[in-house]
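Continuing the series of single-chain predictions for the mutant panel. This is the parent chain; the variants come on the following pages.
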Amino acid sequence: MAGSKQKKYIAIAGNIGAGKSSLTSLLGKSFGWKTYFESVDDNPYLSDFYEDMRRWSFNLQIYFLSSRFRHQKTLMEAEFSLIQDRTIYEDVEIFAKNLHEMGLMSDRDYKNYCALFNEMVTYLKAPDLLIYLRAEVPTLVRQIQQRGRDYENTIRIEYLERLNTLYEDWISRYENEKLIIDTDDLDFVNNEEDLGTVITLVEQRLYGLFN
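Parent structure:
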């Protein structure tokens, strides 16, 4: 594979339930990349956040930000190719912004959060390729229900719709290398042909294989 010997840093972005973790695993296995996943199950704030978003929004976002910043520093120092489930950019562009717009994070906390993010991001390198998984809300809801995480049972459709709007705005402004994959009619977890389609798209974007 042309260019495959070079170290690559890939990141997968997308709404809750878009299939980021699954695709991270599948692409990591297919390309031989080391995988890094978003910290979810050991997150000490997530359950509380879904019960009372206004009370716990700032705590949750600071936890995600510090956790992902530590991961990003590790990834930048790695000597091997890797793929990451969710990016640090989504924290400020999607989730914190949405909480602030919904009145669930105060102006003071949001300003503090953004100032911290802006300091952190100056030390970081953008991915060689950002893969954005685009999915409509019914697809997200179906996949959230399938994985059955208790703390996600209270997620409202309106919340997912707002996140989708913010994702579309962010990805339209994202200036580095990106690949947008519409996933509503794809099942890359259970359908090998669909997975092959995604792998081909990634190969083309990374290594210039347009045959």
